[in-house]
Specification:
mainly alpha; MFS_trans_sf; transport; transmembrane helix; cell inner membrane
């Protein structure tokens, strides 16, 4: 059993892990499209490559979750995933063709996707009855995202897109260093106790459908947001500032999320957040020329990801028992960010075309978000909807 001091120490290392994990996202997600474009890939190839980044979340988290739930080796998987991903990422330095880059992405993301689901489970189990503090811990990831999305934008503007692999390697190394002190607190079930199969209840099914559609709506944001802003006349540095504005709004929302969840419950907040997301994509589609409207669309990231993610994590933690928690987090990641993100990015690559269909990719995103909101209405309300503040 962890003491108060060891728990505090573990939470500090978890904060650092979140910082580096989402710093990597802040470097890769906004700028990979520009990176691939400068290496000579066309929009359809870029869409496919970015879809691989999402698609590995379909298989990899579930593979690692089965290992974690059966063995209890959660912190060990984080360490192994960080180390293997760092080594596999070295392949990014070679200027290979389309097939080479696709294999490179698939390899390093397979190991990288071993990390987040286990990180979420360890954090929530470490917090225990203080699970409402999750947002405070997770906000360090948003801070890392902000630092690197701005920093990488300026670095690319100064030295070009080939600086990206160097930044990424430093961040992967930092992730590994911060994961190494995590203790091996294995949660293995008692001998002879059978592990019950996962039950796909109605709330879980509709929640997963909604999460998948929501991440489909984020397809153009993940893959083409910086390209879209460049097309509208903004620089990479300016694009980085806009993305960072969204992450800052997300941090603020994480501070208020426990109180909002305690007062309104998961279902209500999901409906409101996803509706705001649909509005956000329409603002991006038709207000890109206005810095005010574009800035407002990024502030709405507080709902698109901040409040939606906080509510979703609580939903998963509540609806999956201890023997299936890694699997629950993995399913959430794989079906939403994996299936949804991959489909959304891939489809938007075709809608985008030569750039003439850019606006319609955001209209497609708003339509997906609206469908995700409708799916939430089919989730039966839980008796314990609220989370204690």
């Amino acid at each position: 059993m962890l003491t108060i001091s060891s728990t505090s120490q573990q939470l500090r290392w978890l904060c650092a892990c979140y910082f580096f994990f989402f710093s990597i996202l802040g470097t890769m997600i906004p700028y990979l499209g520009v990176f691939f474009e400068n290496r000579g890939f066309n929009p359809q190839e870029i869409g496919f490559l970015l879809a691989i980044l999402m698609a590995t979340r379909i298989v990899a988290p579930n593979v690692w979750a089965k290992v974690a739930d059966r063995t209890g080796m959660r912190s060990e998987l984080i360490k192994m995933g960080a180390g293997a991903a760092m080594l596999a990422y070295l392949s990014f330095f070679y200027h290979g063709g389309f097939v080479y880059m696709a294999l490179s992405l698939a390899l390093y993301t397979f190991f990288w996707n071993a990390i987040l689901a286990q990180l979420e489970v360890i954090t929530l189990e470490t917090l225990g009855e203080n699970a409402s503090r999750y947002g405070q811990i997770r906000s360090f990831g948003s801070i890392g995202y902000i630092c690197l999305v701005v920093g990488a934008g300026f670095a690319i503007g100064q030295w070009g897109t080939e600086v990206l692999p160097y930044i990424g390697l430093v961040l992967f190394t930092g992730m590994l260093v911060c994961a190494l002190p995590l203790p091996a607190n294995r949660a293995v079930r008692p001998q002879g106790q059978e592990r019950q199969p996962l039950k796909w209840t109605k709330p879980i099914i509709w929640f997963m459908i909604s999460a998948m559609l929501l991440q489909m709506s984020a397809g153009p944001f993940y893959g083409f947001f910086v390209l879209y802003l460049k097309q509208a006349g903004y620089t990479e540095a300016a694009a980085g500032i806009f993305v960072a504005l969204g992450a800052m709004a997300e941090i603020v929302m994480f501070m208020f999320a426990p109180r909002l969840l305690g007062r309104y419950g998961v279902n209500t907040l999901l409906v409101v957040s996803i509706a705001m997301t649909a509005v956000r994509w329409l603002l991006v589609a038709f207000g890109v020329e206005s810095m005010l409207l574009l800035g407002l669309s990024q502030v709405l990231h507080a709902f698109t990801f901040g409040l939606t993610h906080a509510a979703s994590i609580q939903f998963v933690h509540r609806h999956f028992d201890a023997s299936h928690r890694s699997q629950g987090q993995a399913l959430y990641a794989s079906l939403s960010f994996g299936v949804g993100g991959a489909l959304g990015t891939w489809i938007c690559g075709y809608i985008w075309g030569d750039g003439s269909g850019a606006v319609w990719s955001w209209v497609f995103a708003a339509t997906c978000a609206f469908a995700a909101m409708l799916a939430v209405f089919f989730i039966p309300k839980d008796r314990a909807q609220a989370v204690a503040p």
